[in-house]
Write a structure and sequence with these properties.
single chain, about 400 residues, nine-stranded mixed beta sheet, six-stranded mixed beta sheet, 14 helices, 15 strands, about 40% helix
């Protein structure tokens, strides 16, 4: 059945959905509406893992090959604390420039017959005439905001401040660096996304942010201070505060976004418009593309639009539970950094890798470290830990929901 689809938002989610729908049925009438000029994307690089790449190859081999070709990869992580550093082997990971990723997806969509309309903002006042309107316009979605009561939008704001920067230092591993100042700890996460640049996200608690004067500093002065603080990992390379065509970088508090429902009439939420997960788990782009796959599957498998949207929402909410839990606990780990930072280096680095655990906040760190080491050697203890962690997570999550009512 031929359908007319309007994707509002030219990010990875909207573009990839248009590709998948056109591949399923070239007769579909699909338009992607993007409010910004072509090529003026925000951000630096995005990261993803082998599992997503394998899924992209299954769904559309042509765009997957292009994404893989323009990605860099690494399989190690390195953490710096004061004058100490530790390097660990990990899973294979990839980085690609956000601008490059969008170019690849836009070119592929056009080749399949998708119309791309840039500098075209869609709101409730000028909704396209379409069978399905996909709100893929990001965490600040105008379409979702106009129907916030129906979607049951909830936003929880994190305690820490963060800023998203670039650098010409090309990291050879996923890099963490923790620096102690007179006003508390400040840290960064860095990863390469091409042969010339890396992403560098800097985070700190509010006391450190104000104590260092970052709350009042001009952008260039603030970036210069961060360059000094992280000089030992930047190796003389600069930090860059703005990406091409965008305003300067800003300090933000991370906002975790959830909804009671993801669709209303013929409007459905996709990607960051539907959910957000803390950047420290590096899953944002992966989840957006997985949303697109799930929505395309649902539309292909169900003749009725309401049934398709209900199935899509049910599937994705279920699949997101684990990563949303991991993101909550990862954010909490950093918000409670003093609990871990003064441990012996091998223990601190090990618990950095365990920051997604729902058990860790409720167990003394050194005891957790010993249990985790023992679990690595005893299968029975590993099974008990795998059983207990989700149980604790579900109990805490249920209590948090009850407290909101």
């Amino acid at each position: 059945m031929r359908v007319k689809v309007a994707c509002v938002g030219g990010g990875p989610a909207g573009l990839y959905l248009s590709i998948l729908l056109k591949r399923r049925d070239p007769s579909h009438d699909i338009t992607v509406h993007e409010r910004d000029p072509e090529g003026s994307t925000y951000g630096w690089g995005v990261t993803y893992w082998r599992g997503l790449l394998d899924r992209l190859h299954e769904c559309d081999p042509e765009s997957a090959r292009a994404v893989e070709e323009h990605s860099v990869r690494w399989s190690e992580g390195v953490a710096h604390v004061r004058d100490l550093a530790a390097r660990h082997k990990g899973d294979e990971a990839f980085g690609i420039g956000r601008h490059r990723l969008l170019e690849i997806l836009a070119d592929r969509a056009r080749s399949l017959g998708v119309r791309l309309e840039f500098e075209h903002e869609i709101t409730e006042d000028n909704l396209p005439d379409a069978d399905l309107v996909v709100a893929a316009d990001g965490v600040h979605s105008a379409l979702r905001t106009g129907r916030a009561d129906h979607f049951g939008s909830r936003v929880s704001t994190g305690r820490n401040r963060y800023i998203w920067l670039g650098t010409t230092k090309v990291f050879d591993a996923f890099t963490f660096a923790f620096v102690e100042t007179d006003h508390g700890w400040i840290w960064c996460y860095g990863y390469a996304f091409g042969p010339e640049h890396s992403t560098c996200v800097v985070e700190c608690g509010p006391e450190t942010w104000t104590g260092l004067g970052l709350d009042e500093a001009h952008e260039s002065d603030g970036v210069a201070l961060l360059e000094k603080l992280f000089a030992h990992v930047l190796d003389g390379h600069p930090l860059i505060g703005r990406s091409a065509g965008r305003a300067g970088a800003q300090w933000l508090n991370f906002r975790t976004l959830t909804h009671r429902t993801w669709h209303h009439d013929n409007v459905v939420l996709l990607g960051d418009a539907a959910h957000s997960t803390h950047y420290s788990v590096g899953a944002g782009t992966t989840l957006a593309l997985e949303d697109a796959v799930a929505l395309a599957d649902a539309l292909g498998d169900h003749a009725s639009l309401p049934h398709a949207l209900t199935h899509y929402e049910r599937r994705r909410k279920s699949e997101l539970l684990a990563v949303q839990s991991a993101a909550r606990y990862s954010a909490r780990w950093y918000e409670n950094l003093p609990r871990y930072i003064h441990l012996p280096p091998d223990q601190m680095f090990a618990l950095l890798g365990q920051r997604h655990s729902p058990l860790l906040p409720y167990v003394p760190p050194q005891l957790y470290y010993r249990i985790d080491r023992a679990a690595g050697q005893l299968e029975a203890l590993r099974r008990f830990k795998r059983w207990l962690g989700p149980k604790v997570a579900r109990t805490v999550h249920a209590r948090a929901l009850a407290s909101r009512e």
